[in-house]
Specification:
The chain has about 240 residues and is an alpha+beta fold. It is built from twelve helices and five strands. The longest helix has 25 residues. The two termini are about 20 Å apart.
């Protein structure tokens, strides 16, 4: 089910579809609420925040308070760290913010996992999932849950950058030929170069040429990176 979630989120075409996919994945992982936050640094002290979430309405006012964010140990961790943080009441008490946990716990934010991806050009993506139940006691189960969320975050980040960032800030889209795009689409479906050639009615060597040309134009080191970048740029679906 989780593997299907990775592919499904890549196919999101707008913010509503993106929200539906991250909520579905979150609930499949055993959590109730999710926040996917995209941040674009425009200059010193000036950032744009774009949030896709299913935050309870009553909690929005508190969570959007700048003072709350500055004191929240999970938010502060994600601002500067790329390692995931697994948090509970003790995390807040240790940082002298126990009352913040008490406030959010009343809305179901009792435990959770959060992480951030910091990218070039002042772009950041944070993904956090939360629930009102304790986290798994089994360290291996918790480790698998964190790993699943990390992999999903990488895919979700690609989509967020494609559909949430204003068009004026999007990178220039490379000009791929129809045959190069078709070869990438079949590569996305895990077809080998030989299979791509057979489907497209061309030789394996020509199929490899189309894929390599697409990789070069997209500035990618391998065909898998090329597929992900083409998806993020909206060149293939």
């Amino acid at each position: 089910m989780l593997a299907g979630g990775y592919k499904s989120v890549l196919e999101a075409r707008n913010p509503d579809e993106f929200r539906s996919e991250i909520v579905r994945f979150t609930r499949g992982l055993g959590f109730d609420t999710v926040t996917a936050l995209t941040v674009i640094d425009r200059g010193p002290g000036e950032s744009q925040f774009i949030s896709i979430d299913n935050t309870p309405a009553g909690y929005l006012d508190s969570s959007s308070d700048p003072i709350f964010a500055r004191r929240d140990p999970v938010m502060q961790h994600c601002r500067v760290q790329s390692m995931p943080i697994v948090w509970d009441q003790a995390t807040y008490v240790h940082k002298g913010a126990g009352e913040l946990w008490e406030e959010q716990a009343s809305f179901g934010y009792v435990t959770g996992i959060a992480m951030a991806l910091h990218m070039p050009e002042g772009r950041h993506f944070m993904l956090g999932v939360d629930r009102d139940l304790p986290l798994p006691n089994d360290p291996l189960e918790l480790q698998r849950t964190v790993a699943d969320l990390q992999l999903f975050a990488v895919h979700a980040q690609d989509v967020a950058m494609r559909i949430l960032i204003p068009e004026s800030l999007q990178p220039e889209r490379p000009n791929l030929t129809p045959r190069e795009l078709e070869a990438l689409r079949w590569t996305m479906d895990a077809k080998t170069a030989w299979e791509v050639g057979a489907i497209m009615g061309i030789s394996e060597r020509t199929a490899v040429l189309h894929i390599n040309n697409a990789m070069h134009k997209l500035g990618c080191a391998n065909k898998h990176q090329a597929v992900l970048k083409a998806l993020r740029l909206g060149l293939i679906h």
